[in-house]
């Protein structure tokens, strides 16, 4: 993960609207958050700080978007923020009840080659709808850390905060191979108990 000179790592939270991104942001940052207007627009974004295991993260809740091909002002701001923070890590937030919808955006982010981690949020709603949540299986396919969370209750948030440091760039060609049933040989990842093959232990 690339870090700023002041030893603070920028984390951009990216996801579709209504995936519980703001609730997850509040869980990660607590009360010390600042709401600002993106320059030249009326679009709001929120920034806060997370300190985890002696690491400091500036977390920015990017306006919700369905795609990196913007169709309105909020989506345009989301794309600009990604462009402006090229050294950031991206926390992609997915709705566990509508994973396919969120994966379109996730893959667009992955294509930028930046370190990523995925929060599979709203797992409580998925369970209520009897939708199976397989974070480990999704992690094997995507090759980046995937953490199941429920922002409302706080379930999984501590684990997510700890795993941010293991964010990594996805390999799009490897994802395509796994989706086509062509499992590639995984690198040895000694030291990661219960490893699902994301490679974040390196």
TrEMBL record:
Name listed for the protein in its UniProt record: GTP-binding protein
Organism (species): Methanoculleus frigidifontis
Residue ranges occupied by any FeoB-type G domain in the UniProt entry: 8-170
Residue spans crossing the bilayer: none
InterPro entries with a match to the protein in the record: FeoB_GTPase, G_FEOB_dom, GTP-bd, P-loop_NTPase, Small_GTP-bd
